[in-house]
What does this fold into?
Amino acid sequence: MISLTNAAFGYGSTPIIRDVTQELPAGSFHFLTGPSGAGKTTFLKMCYLALRPQQGTIEIFGQDVTQMTRDQVSNMRRKIGVVHQDCQFLDHLSVQENIALPLKVSGRDIDENMDNLGDLLNWVGMSHRIDAMPDQLSGGERQRLALARAVIMSPDMIVADEPTGNVDWEMAERLLTLLIELNKMGKTILLATHDLSLIRAAKGRVSAKVLRLKNGDLQLAGAGL
Amino acid sequence: MVRTLKFLFGSRASDKIVPPRGNSAWLTFSAAAAMAFIAVFALALALAVDRVADRWSLELAQTATVRIVAPMDEIDMQTEAALKALRTTPGIASAEVLNDEAQAALLAPWLGEDLPIDTLPLPKLIEVVVLGDGPDVENLKLRLAAEAPGARFDDHSKWRQPLRSAANQLRLMALVSLMLVAGTTAIIVTLAANASLAASASIIKTLRLIGATDGYIARAFVRRITFRTLAGAIVGAALAMLVMFPYPTLQGSGEILANLTFVGLHWVLPVSIPVLAAITAFVATQVAATRHLRRAA
It folds into this structure.
């Protein structure tokens, strides 16, 4: 699914990711932890093609992304769902329109996907909020909206960057449950968090591995959950 | 055709991704309206100049003047001889002596209304109306010199040339005005597009995150801004046409201001202004969006 070989990235003369070689197989669940500023977001950005490694290579779905054109990168991103801590939405569009946005961008017929859209809204518990505008949503609702938008295209991989950072514990657990359900459907999950209690909450519910990023190095922490 | 239009403008669905309101939206609309309003007037000026220049040229080309300057006791005889020569020359429709009243009227602006014309040693004037390409001027001059030595033939060519030059300059000015309006529209639309793209940085970021290509994003902005410009230009052009519609035209007048309107089929031409404005906006926004997205990558 994702294969990093000697991948490195830095800002100016400061290296953030150093010589990382790591495989994230299809259908796997990985937590990515590390202190603030360790480079978790940079690592994730390389995984969803917002950044290209300055050294080494990254292969996603068997394709070397370092040589891709911008349009190829855009097409590849449609196979990767991304959820951020501070999710950005199109504030002039409703919840339903925001969720359907990836369909629109990829040229799919929204009317043909209305059933999927309805199921998805039910799944994230947002079916009563379809006409709401993004600025009317709570933090938890925004995260669920972001997750729904991330999976509407049925991507093979979900990359989540601190998705529970702005929500209470109950909502964090609910989001984790949704991600575990997606993993059980065969999706590859890469979830960055500094919240160790979230990792503990996943114990026994999913076969996950924990990656730890420190001083630019990526290490496998423990034997997994 | 439909596929080409879709490629150029994107789908209607992509239109919604650009916020419908904002400062740049109002700026684009009102600037397009103002520019279209001015463009319609520049177009009317160009057409008015064209009509007046044609009229001036035609009127001067169809007439000539023969002036008889001779001693008082010979002037009538030479006038008769000149008239006879003129009336028998091919290419001349008519030749009539200007009577005292007509001559007094011509001199009135300089010498006043109560001019005692019979006491002044004025030359006789013969008004000549020419046919088609007119007479052979050189032959006519030779004939007049032989039969009426005091006759001076003037075909108005020395007046026609500066008028033609002035008309050409006015035409050029009107054309330059139209080009300046188009250029200014392009600059304003480019500024508005850049402002709109800069204000939509988070939208662009979000769209890229979900897999939108730069082409898709650019088309969405191009479509929105092009249609805003088209709408503004339609309003501006329509207002200008409404203002000009009741404008009193003095058909046959040589005054440019009296002709500053559209005549007949020329009323169709202002309709092309919004279309040209939309094409200008399309190109300007496409360039601005492509550059902006490349920089923001």
Remarks:
- Strands of chain B lie at 63-68, 92-97, 124-130, 151-154.
- The CA atoms of residues 249 and 263 of chain B lie 9 Å apart.
- The mean pLDDT of chain B is 83.
- The first strand of chain B starts at residue 63 and ends at 68.
